[in-house]
Amino acid sequence: MANEFIIKNGFHSKGNSEITGSLTVTGSIVDFTSASAVYLPIETVPLINPIAEYETITASIAANAEYTLPNGLTYISSSTYEYIEIFANQQRLSYNIDFIPFTTSSIKFTFTIPNGSDLTYKVFRKL
Fold first, then answer.
1. Contact indicator for 52, 94 with CB cutoff of 8 Å
2. Which domain holds residue 116?
3. Per-10-residue mean pLDDT for the chain, 127 residues long?
């Protein structure tokens, strides 16, 4: 039954309801498909909606040079809301060690990336 729920102690709701205080749902599926807004603490939301970009570079990338991410890819440098992973020739690079965020659309590698390297960028967002 759409828009209907029953909570123990006889509370039953069909349609709009407001719950003040706490509500714990266990062992059930909560469907927010038609909700106009759902508010959750950001720390509890898993990283979702991965975006991946791949490229084979045709010229070396010098260490500490600003490098713009491909195809308009952007990220927020705060790992609370968004996270970026970078792989060079299938080896995962370390955030703030092998590459450093520079702007929301660029990074700086801390070492030279050789010509012909395959780079993979993965961005995961919370919202």
1. no
2. 43-125
3. 52 68 70 73 66 93 95 74 84 92 92 96 75
